[in-house]
Prior knowledge:
Elements: E1 14-19, E2 25-32, H1 39-44, E3 52-58, H2 62-75, E4 79-85, H3 94-106, E5 114-119, H4 121-133, E6 139-144, H5 147-153, E7 158-163, E8 166-173, E9 178-182, H6 191-212, H7 217-227, H8 234-251, H9 267-276, H10 283-300, H11 307-318, H12 322-326, H13 333-341, E10 353-356, E11 363-366, H14 371-378
Parallel strand pairs: 2-9, 3-4, 3-5, 5-6, 6-9
Antiparallel strand pairs: 1-2, 7-8, 10-11
Helix pairs in contact: 3-4, 5-6, 5-8, 6-7, 6-8, 6-10, 7-11, 9-10, 9-13, 10-11, 10-14, 13-14
Amino acid sequence: MAKNVDSPSLAREQIEVLLTAAEPRRYRIVVQPGLMNRLGEECQDILAPDAKILLLTDSHLAERYLPTAMDSLKAADFEVIPMVISAGEHSKSLAQAQEVYETALQHSMTRKDAILGLGGGVIGDLAGFCASTYHRGIAVIHAPTTLVAQVDSAIGGKTAVNFGKIKNNIGTFHQPLRVLSDTSALDSLPERELAAGMAEVIKYGLIETSCMGTTGFFTWLLNHAQAGTLRAAFPEMIRRCCEIKAAVVMQDELETKGLRFFLNLGHTFGHAYESLSEYGLLHGEAVAIGMQKALRLSTLLDLFPAEVESQLETLYRHTNLLDCVQQPLPYTPQALLEKMRLDKKNRDANIRLILPVEQPGKVVVRDDIPDTLILKVLAGN
Length: 381
Ligand SMILES: NC(=O)c1ccc[n+]([C@@H]2O[C@H](COP(=O)([O-])OP(=O)(O)OC[C@H]3O[C@@H](n4cnc5c(N)ncnc54)[C@H](O)[C@@H]3O)[C@@H](O)[C@H]2O)c1
Ligand SMILES: [Zn+2]
């Protein structure tokens, strides 16, 4: 369990990840508004007092958050090396990684030092990748600033750069030393990015039971969305997502046991839309479409209560995802199906899908769904 029954000393805003695959190790995810002002304090018990911190952030964030982050780290007596890179997916590259290594080298960083990634998934993936390879691995600390990063990419240790036009083609597993999520940072996040993050949040509501045995997150989300209180409940919402992701990571740290596959609900459908849109759709938007398709398929197969489809629609309406999901898209079902066949998670020629079953929270993996049925769902019937 991600929740800490064994560690009563943990505060409510803290979640602990206990790892055993390589060497036993645990790290904390702290989710709290205003945490940016306490980054330095939060690093004091995990880094040596004379540690240098390469503070990596992007051009959209530098002006707004870098001064606060730097002040906080300096007040805790750390030597800080700020590095601002251009915002956007193109920065997840080996060329950009090389510049990070060069900066680290110029400042004679060693294994007692750390990289702190302040930003979204792009910064986190790059910071993690560089930290895992520089001097055979130095510490990485994540300070995620997007919803996607706070509920997903900062937890679990996957790092990556894109290579040969393939996303995340080169990467490592490198767990962070700590994750520091300042939920106030989401106030400046563009609405579209926030909505894309909400798709991953809703996904947790639909896989919770299969990941950690508990139920109720989907209904919790629905109730808050309908009452208009979701925004105010962000810290708790993000913590609940982190608990679910942490539960999966603890059971399947290196993605060898299949459990991490549940995190891909909506993604096989979603990747097809994402790829045909040539990344005009944000990943989360494509996942929102994909989850709707997965639900439709489950309903058609009589695996799942039909009323959840309208509940999902309600959730989408309240999280600014409905317009995106309902927009007419120019892709033919056949073209989408061909893309789905290319999904790297497939075995043989069969398309592997995660489908909701019984009630929100439970999913199964199926690779026996006839193409005709998938095409029907893709055609919107
Ligand atoms: N490692 C993993 O397990 C994992 C999981 C999911 C996604 N990812 C990766 O994460 C990346 C996507 O992450 P993302 O959605 O966070 O995108 P991102 O890092 O590109 O951030 C989205 C945009 O929001 C801006 N931004 C970030 N925080 C902001 C804030 N608080 N206020 C204003 N603007 C802000 C960024 O500058 C950027 O323009 C992809 O590269 C994906 O492959 C990795
Ligand atoms: Zn995703």
